[in-house]
């Protein structure tokens, strides 16, 4: 008979001298301070790995004797004091930095996102979006911005991944135990949990609130798993990106509507609201409800809310935008829009669905209509988003419509390997942290002696290889793999011999990222990989969403190919991709491979992480890469133009990939001199680090958000909201009037066009506009002057001319405004006059247009209306 086991947990007590370890474990500052994490690791390295680098869990499980002995361990105590000194220094410096100084004293930015990735110890993220949100918060803390973040607390977070012996992804969900996480329940003065009340359909759903400290800033997470809710509603915040549509809409209601109520409940009064991806767009409805309850009209409320709302879209494919059927929306929000917003079903549906569009309620549509500050996340993605959103401003060319871009970045302290951090501290001084965006400062990298640069890289790479060896061993152990087989598998990633070219590919296994492109011509790949003089190892990692069958097929395909004799040990598939594994891979691999379908990678950030750790990017020119690639700081694959034929496109892109590998990457890596490294490689790696680190970091990104979005949003919000929303009301009325009259507006040239003049001269141009009862100042009449692309009679077009014609957006254009003069009594039109003194010369052409104008508009073409003469 076997004995029964009883559980007993004995909580270790922190000795007085080490009391503040607890404080460190409860502030995510540890996620970007390497010394803080090392402190825990130093106490017990094995336990540190076993608890998944989770400081709180670590402190609950450490042996009391180890703690007691640490008190007399001088080197540990020194390290402890040093970490606390940096923590206190970080904490006590509260002055705003960079662009944050221009914010008003009472400004506050509220940031809403469905996922946050700070560190592997807090698994409430799935991929790039979450990590970007985490980095955004960390940087807001670094810059001491007035900033608060809102999200959801998922009890099971995103899944953990194992890969079985057939390459199947096995998803398991671990319970997120609050006591093991750096979070605390938000309570009121009587120490009772506070609850946020959200009506979903006919049910009153309650959410409790968790608070997380991210350095200087707070992140609040809503959690419906409370006994007062019924079983279904308790599960709303169960999983991140649950595939059930029902759950998704409820989650988004809790996040958007509940999130606003939560901030109000805590007395927090944001002046700027940032919706990071459409999931949180319902916040617009709740803010509108507040104003309607105060007596404002629906139209005024939307103007007032939109004035200080910033929306960032991350998805370049319309199908990727969240949308819900009219029935679902009616079911869950019917009572809300009838009773709270006091609007009709048609009015409500129009917020999320445009005429002639799908009848579904689309979260991007709501977000675009409920914000006046909108952006994509790279230059290309900004353009793509302008095209996707062209329907909102039907008479405006996409390149002029009000969607802009802020290119993503990464949080350097979180992603820079400790070896590089230490090296920068020693060689550049600790103040390198204050120069993160200073391109000139980072020129210093070019002066690092080659040998030293190479040695650091190799050290970091060895550490990565050791981690991969450990992971693969653990991964294959359950499948009773033989010792010999394991050796075969690990043969080329020996941490003691980091001299084999190692190429990494790790990211979500979404199909557009084309993880298996490399395997398209198996024989060719075999030749490349198995050159005995110049071997190559590929390391793959990544999770496919549990509902994404094709993504899991990709994983299986790669896994099965990796088991073929010719690829054994050369193509490795590592399970359990998370932030911890990501940090190691991006800091250690020589080359990072990125081959998405153009233009479907909105930005991508993992390549940035690689570059700042002196690895090199080999990437399709998509997302952030075209903004960074200068011909010398990595390699580019030009996307093939076969957009419609996927087979041809993939064939062609794969061929380009093989060519770059064979002709450039591999020869350069193995071009070793007597010191054992390739001078050309080191040169490229230095250049990559020096050009990418100071530009693609989140400090630059936050400063862009500040100057282009947060500051204008704060100003516009104040303007429209002052005097009991007087300006918002005026603007809403003005817009309604314009919409009613616009179809009757017409313009025609009055004067016969002059076709020849001399530089320095001016000419008069007159336009008559039928205003259809609008005021003369309600519209702007504008002349656009540009170089005639070419005169076929005189000049032969250059390649560049042709490209300009093709892209139609590179022409230098100068605009001039007409002045309203007087009514034309015989025709009922209004006369506008322009004295044009051209700023250009040569063969020119001009066009004249009329569009609604009011100086209070944030964007010139906000109304989406335009008439051409
Ligand atoms: C950086 C990072 C990403 C983002 O990957 P991209 O493919 O570059 O967008 C995703 N997951 C993890 C764990 C990361 O660290």
Automatic annotation (TrEMBL):
CC cofactor: pyridoxal 5'-phosphate
Matches recorded under InterPro entries: Agluc_phsphrylas, Glyco_trans_35, Glycogen/Maltodextrin_Phosph, Glycogen_phosphorylase_DUF3417, Pyridoxal_P_attach_site
EC number(s) on file: 2.4.1.1
Enzyme class: transferase
Pfam families in UniProt: DUF3417, Phosphorylase
Gene Ontology terms describing biological process: carbohydrate metabolic process
GO molecular function annotations of the record: glycogen phosphorylase activity; pyridoxal phosphate binding
Catalytic activity: [(1->4)-alpha-D-glucosyl](n) + phosphate = [(1->4)-alpha-D-glucosyl](n-1) + alpha-D-glucose 1-phosphate
Domain spans labelled DUF3417: 14-122
Coiled-coil positions: none
Positions of modified residues (N6-(pyridoxal phosphate)lysine): 609
Keyword annotations from UniProtKB, A to Z: Allosteric enzyme, Carbohydrate metabolism, Glycosyltransferase, Pyridoxal phosphate, Transferase
Gene3D superfamilies: Glycogen Phosphorylase B
Function: Phosphorylase is an important allosteric enzyme in carbohydrate metabolism. Enzymes from different sources differ in their regulatory mechanisms and in their natural substrates. However, all known phosphorylases share catalytic and structural properties.
NCBIfam families associated with the record: more_P_ylases (TIGR02094)
Stated family: Belongs to the glycogen phosphorylase family.
Protein name: glycogen phosphorylase
């Amino acid at each position: 008979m076997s004995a029964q086991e009883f559980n007993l947990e004995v909580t270790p007590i922190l000795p007085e001298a080490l009391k503040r370890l607890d404080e460190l474990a409860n502030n995510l500052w540890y996620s970007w301070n390497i010394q803080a994490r090392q402190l825990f690791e130093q106490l017990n390295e094995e336990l540190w790995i076993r608890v998944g680098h989770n400081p709180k869990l670590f402190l609950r499980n450490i042996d009391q004797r180890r703690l007691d002995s640490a008190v007399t361990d001088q080197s540990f105590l020194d390290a402890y004091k040093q970490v606390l000194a940096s923590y206190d220094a970080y904490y006590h410096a509260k002055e705003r930095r960079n662009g944050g100084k221009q914010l008003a004293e009472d400004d506050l930015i509220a940031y809403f996102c469905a996922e946050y990735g700070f560190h592997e110890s807090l698994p409430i993220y799935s991929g790039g979006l979450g990590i970007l949100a985490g980095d955004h918060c960390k940087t807001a803390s670094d810059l001491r911005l007035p900033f608060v973040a809102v999200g959801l607390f998922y009890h099971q977070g995103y899944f953990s991944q194992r890969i079985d012996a057939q390459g199947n992804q096995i998803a398991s969900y671990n319970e997120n135990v609050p006591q093991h996480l750096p979070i605390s329940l938000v309570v009121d003065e009587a120490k009772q949990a506070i609850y946020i009340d959200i009506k979903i359909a006919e049910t009153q759903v309650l959410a409790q609130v968790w608070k997380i400290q991210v350095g200087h800033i707070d992140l609040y997470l809503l959690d419906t798993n409370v006994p007062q809710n019924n079983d279904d509603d308790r599960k709303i915040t169960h999983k991140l990106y649950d595939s059930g549509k029902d759950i998704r809409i409820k989650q988004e209601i809790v996040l958007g509507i509940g999130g606003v109520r939560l901030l109000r409940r805590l007395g927090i009064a944001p002046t700027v609201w940032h919706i990071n991806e459409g999931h949180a767009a319902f916040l617009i409805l709740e803010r509108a409800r507040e104003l309607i309850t105060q007596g404002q009209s629906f139209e005024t409320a939307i103007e007032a809310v939109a004035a200080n709302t910033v929306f960032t879209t991350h998805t370049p494919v319309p199908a990727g935008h969240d949308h819900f059927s009219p029935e679902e929306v009616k079911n869950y929000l019917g009572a809300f829009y009838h009773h709270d917003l006091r609007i009709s079903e048609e009015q409500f549906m129009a917020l999320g669905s445009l005429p002639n569009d799908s009848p579904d309620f689309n979260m991007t549509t709501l977000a675009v209509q409920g914000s006046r500050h909108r952006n994509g996340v790279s230059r290309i993605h900004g353009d793509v988003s302008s095209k996707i959103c062209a329907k909102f401003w039907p008479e405006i060319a996409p390149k002029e419509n009000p969607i802009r871009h802020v290119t993503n970045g990464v949080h350097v302290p979180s992603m820079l390997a400790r070896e590089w951090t230490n090296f920068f501290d020693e060689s550049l001084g600790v103040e390198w942290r204050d120069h993160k965006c200073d391109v000139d400062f980072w020129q210093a990298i070019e002066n690092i002696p080659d040998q030293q640069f190479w040695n650091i890289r190799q050290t970091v790479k060895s550490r990565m290889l050791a981690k991969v060896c450990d992971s693969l061993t653990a991964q294959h152990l359950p499948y009773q793999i033989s010792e010999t087989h394991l050796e075969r598998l690990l043969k080329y990633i020996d941490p003691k011999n980091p001299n084999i070219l190692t190429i990494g590919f790790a990211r979500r296994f979404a199909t557009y990222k084309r993880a298996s492109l490399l395997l398209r011509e198996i024989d060719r790949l075999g030749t490349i990989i198995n050159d005995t003089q110049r071997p190559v190892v590929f390391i793959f990692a990544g999770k496919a969403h549990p509902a994404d069958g094709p993504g899991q097929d990709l994983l299986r395909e790669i896994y099965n190919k990796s088991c073929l004799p010719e690829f054994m040990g050369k193509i490795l598939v590592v399970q359990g991709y998370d932030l911890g594994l990501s940090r190691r891979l991006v800091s250690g691999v020589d080359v990072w491979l990125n081959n998405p379908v153009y233009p479907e990678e909105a930005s991508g950030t993992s390549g940035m992480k690689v570059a700042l750790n002196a690895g090199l990017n080999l990437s399709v020119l998509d997302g952030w890469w075209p903004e960074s690639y200068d011909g010398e700081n990595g390699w580019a694959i030009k996307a093939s133009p076969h957009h419609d034929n996927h087979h041809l496109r993939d064939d062609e892109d794969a061929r380009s990939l093989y060519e770059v590998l064979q002709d450039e990457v591999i020869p350069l890596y193995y071009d070793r001199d007597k010191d054992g490294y390739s001078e050309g490689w080191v040169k490229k790696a230095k250049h990559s680090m020096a050009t990418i680190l100071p530009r693609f970091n989140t400090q630059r990104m936050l400063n862009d958000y500040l100057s282009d979005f947060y500051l204008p949003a704060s100003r516009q919000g104040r303007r429209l909201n002052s005097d009991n929303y007087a300006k918002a009301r005026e603007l809403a009325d003005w817009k309604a009037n314009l919409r009613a009259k616009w179809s009757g507006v017409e313009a025609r040239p009055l004067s016969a066009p002059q076709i020849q003049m001399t530089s320095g001269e001016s000419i008069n141009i007159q336009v008559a506009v039928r205003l259809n009862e609008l005021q003369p100042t309600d519209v702007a009449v504008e002349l656009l002057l540009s170089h005639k692309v070419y005169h076929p009679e005189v000049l032969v077009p250059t390649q560049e001319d042709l490209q300009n014609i093709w892209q139609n957006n590179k022409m230098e254009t100068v605009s001039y405004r007409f002045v309203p003069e007087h009514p034309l009594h015989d025709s009922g039109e209004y006369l506008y006059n322009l004295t044009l003194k051209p700023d250009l010369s040569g063969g020119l052409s001009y066009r004249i247009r009329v569009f609604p104008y009011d100086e209070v508009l944030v964007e010139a073409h906000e109304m989406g209306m335009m008439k051409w003469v």
